[in-house]
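User: Structure tokens for both sequences below?

Assistant:
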Amino acid sequence: MSLSPGEPAATPGGAQPAAGAQTPSAGQVPPAGQAPSAGQAPSAGQAPSAGQAPSAGQGAPASLRPPGTFGGLGGIGGLGRWSAVSSGAVGTGAVPRGRNRIPARLIVGVLCALIFFTTATRIAPAIRAGLHDGTRGSWVATNQKCVHSACTWQGKFVLPNGHVLQTADQYDGQLGSAVHAGTSLPALYTGGSGTVFPANGSDLWISLLAALVLSALGLYWASHRYVAAYLRQRREQDAVTSPRH
């Protein structure tokens, strides 16, 4: 069949385009519901035509997404980055909570170790004072030392014959407000520490023993896990290195 000049060509199937209808040109996005022509990129939300790859960031099917991607965020890592951005931790120098905290077991262990060793050096002289076992003499006040509002008297321990046995000792007993330099009180020196006890004994050993037991329990709580792990590791190493019979 011959066509006259200006007459539109018939489409396959015999259908002819309507008058005034235009074919989309290259680079033009076709309307919704219409398949794009060859070389034309599909619009957002539009399925790509046969042989055409989806563009980056487009809603591609799950089977065509690269492994580990989830909505363009890169899987779990992407979700982590998204949460960091949304919380304001990126670019602000914010540190996640709980990263730089000192473990509570470490703090308790250090404090209990200090209390334990300080108490252990003082409990033996205090027990002897409780048993009234020691050298009898006099404690003579020499000078007063004050740190802020806490003041303590220093003195010397003098034997009955006038010989000075110890200097710069503290008196572990009640001192009245009338104490001054030169005040002399009957005292008991048990040795082993810079403390002089009253002549009638002292109950200081009771509080020291309680502090010693509590600090030992605190040390056990703070270190038993690490000690058990160390011993288990040593046993495993010995089992590996020891010759088998």
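Moving on to the next sequence.
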Amino acid sequence: MPRFLPKAVVRIGDSFEAVKNKSLQRSNYNFIVIDNPAFSPYGCDYCEHFDLFPDVFSYLGESGVLVINIVYNIGLYTSELGRKIPQKWIDRRKKFYGISKDEEAIKPNPGKMVDVYENLISKGDFNIKNIFLVPRNLTMGHLVIALERNSKKRKI
């Protein structure tokens, strides 16, 4: 990699812990991609990208774009893998998306999923400039959110 990106700094570690502990190399970014594994739970019992919120917002500068992997049909996704859906995954989705039934957590309405992220953002220090879902296949896509900070004060 140094040959192609001579100024790149590569750090290997738990990015969830780095975000929570405020130990990333920089304090502000204008483009953040949350490219978590699609199957959950993984690592230190993480589920999708849920454990990054709301801390990830503190790393955005005055404006920025956040791209998040969204799995909108874990039933179809796990069946394609020949695996069962862990109940812990369903339970975490129910909690994060505010859903009461297992079936709805397995395949929530994508519009309602987007509403959850809009609500998370509205509780913080950002205005949404644009938000849209880019389907990748029948089971997942990328939620793209362009944000602008309300105040000039940043907490890091």
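User: Anything stand out in the second?

Assistant: The mean pLDDT is 91.
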